[in-house]
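Please produce the structure of this protein holding zinc ion.
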Amino acid sequence: MPLFDFSKDPRARVRSIKKRTLRMIMAASKSQYPEEFGAMLRAEGEVINELMLLPGTISGQTHAIFHFHNLPIDFTVVGTVHSHPSGDCYPSDADLSLFRKYGWVHIISAMPFDMESWAAFDGAGQPVELRVVD
Ligand code: ZN
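Below is the modeled complex.
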């Protein structure tokens, strides 16, 4: 039996994101370009509604590096977001190991960073449907 049953965690049920939060992700991704933008996602209930910048997160040309040991104990954090300046929304091998390490939902934003150019994945790297809500 697993020590923690993460499927029973309410954070496993996050299935939507506020439109203004998505807009913020795209604006930050654009302003960080050509480097990667990276942040944590916070949710209220089942809706992602906030970004949190993690101290020590390094954005680089190839990938944003998250320092999870800087993550405060915060049960509203549901996952990560980072940008792909290359323009593809598919998780790399490094992304997949990041997704497995922490979180329930992960967003990748891609060039040209409009409201359509993004995708969401679960901790196993499987695509998940995230509804955009007002
Ligand atoms: Zn990536």
